[in-house]
Specification:
mainly alpha
């Protein structure tokens, strides 16, 4: 074999050896990644159910819906198709953290209320489940309703906004008793407001039921 041909053969062998080494490294890295991803997926077992139970006892921490993970959290969520579940629960949690029944005392309260409204709207647009969209619309209506109760000058405006949300909630899920109750209540209150009465008159609502973030309440107002 001539020297040029020998050199070319040796270079080809070296290249193949190098490629083989690279493939081994890639395979090992992929195996390590899949092992870590598998561990993160297993960490989700029972996570949402446990967080729902804690949510019945209080608003909880915003990180409570996800387990500790080694990889970015969205990877395991996507693998399990639970992104909508987490987003829905976080939106409901935002609503509770905004303390809708409490008067807004400072800019922090205003920011919390605004963040809740934004989260409910964004999540409602992204959800495919009609019952969840109905629940989120009902909570948006509740926020507008509380604005009406705290602002006599614009009570009619906020009541009409809440009326639209409650109608949407009832349209999306005819079995949403809370939305139907709230819709009837707001219709009565709107008549009172436009007739000269205050937004806080004309009806009473029960306290917000303490349910898990993944569940709906049972027809007692929002």
């Amino acid at each position: 074999m001539q020297a040029p041909e020998l050199a070319a053969g040796e270079a080809d062998i070296a290249a193949r050896r190098g490629l083989g080494a690279v493939l081994v490294v890639v395979a090992l890295a992929l195996a390590a990644f899949l092992a870590v991803l598998g561990a993160d997926v297993l960490a989700w077992r029972g996570q949402l159910e446990g967080a729902d139970v804690r949510f019945t006892q209080g608003a909880g921490d915003t990180a409570m819906w996800e387990p500790d993970s080694r990889l970015p959290g969205s990877l395991a969520r996507r693998a399990l198709s639970v992104e909508d579940d987490v987003a829905y629960r976080r939106a409901v949690q935002r609503f509770r953290l905004s303390r809708p029944r409490s008067p807004q005392r400072d800019l922090r309260d205003v920011a919390l209320r605004s963040a809740a409204e934004t989260e409910l709207a964004r999540t409602g647009r992204a959800q495919s489940d009609r019952k969840r969209r109905s629940q989120l619309a009902n909570l948006r209506g509740a926020l507008a309703f509380e604005e009406a109760r705290s602002d006599d000058a614009q009570a009619a405006l906020f009541l009409r906004r809440s009326l639209g949300e409650f109608r949407e909630a009832a349209r999306l899920d005819a079995g949403n008793e809370d939305a139907r109750y709230n819709l009837e209540l707001v219709l009565r209150l709107l008549q009172n407001v436009e007739g000269g009465s205050g937004a806080g008159e004309g009806g009473q609502r029960a306290d917000t039921p303490a349910t898990g973030a993944g569940a709906a309440s049972q027809g007692e107002g929002y």
